[in-house]
């Protein structure tokens, strides 16, 4: 398994993976990344030096992604965990854990003290994993992600 930064050639494959996860969990609705045009141009979107998007490859196939982004409206020392999706083939193998740990390590090295995330109640397994890794629930969203359909908001203080 290989973890690497996103490349331009990954745009369409990663967009398809993300949208397939949204269809799988019946959360493909307006106000989500499913309808966000930036989902088709993630390489370009992550050229910000305060952002990173990591890709997991297994047998030369993209099976997951996870990123950190300085979402508008967040405090300077806070970024958002974004684009954390695994294909069915990438699940239950520790790939998500490796992606998440790499993103958290990068966040700390790049001056972030808090990581915020938005999620859906339908992604129960993900929410339990976030709690296990120290995320705490919030009563309202932070920042201006533009993804108003999300109804679960969490934050983690980095050690």
Strand order of the largest sheet: 1-2-3-4-5-7-6
Order of helices and strands: EHHEEEHEHEE
Return residue spans where pLDDT drops below 50 for at least 5 consecutive residues: none
Radius of gyration: 14 Å
How many strand units? Answer: 7
- Rounded mean pLDDT is 95
Structural class: alpha+beta
Coarse shape: globular
What is the count of DSSP helices, taking H or I runs of 4+ residues?
4
Helix content: 25-40%
Largest sheet properties: 7 strands, mixed
- For the terminal residues, how far apart are their CA atoms? 27 Å
Quote the beta fraction: 25-35%
Question: What distinguishing features does this structure have?
Answer:
159 residues; alpha+beta; seven-stranded mixed beta sheet; 28% strand
Fold blueprint:
Layout (H helix, E strand, L loop, with lengths): L1 E4 L5 H14 L17 H4 L6 E7 L2 E9 L8 E9 L8 H15 L4 E6 L4 H9 L3 E3 L13 E6 L2
Question: What does this protein look like?
Answer:
26% of the residues lie in helices and 28% in strands. The chain has helices at 11-24, 42-45, 95-109, 124-132, and strands spanning 2-5, 52-58, 61-69, 78-86, 114-119, 136-138, 152-157. The protein is an alpha+beta fold and 159 residues long. The radius of gyration is 14 Å and the shape is globular. The longest helix is centred in the middle third of the chain and has 15 residues, at 95-109. Strands 1-2-3-4-5-7-6 form a 7-stranded mixed β-sheet, sandwiched between helices. Strand 4, helix 3 and strand 5 (114-119) form a beta-alpha-beta unit.
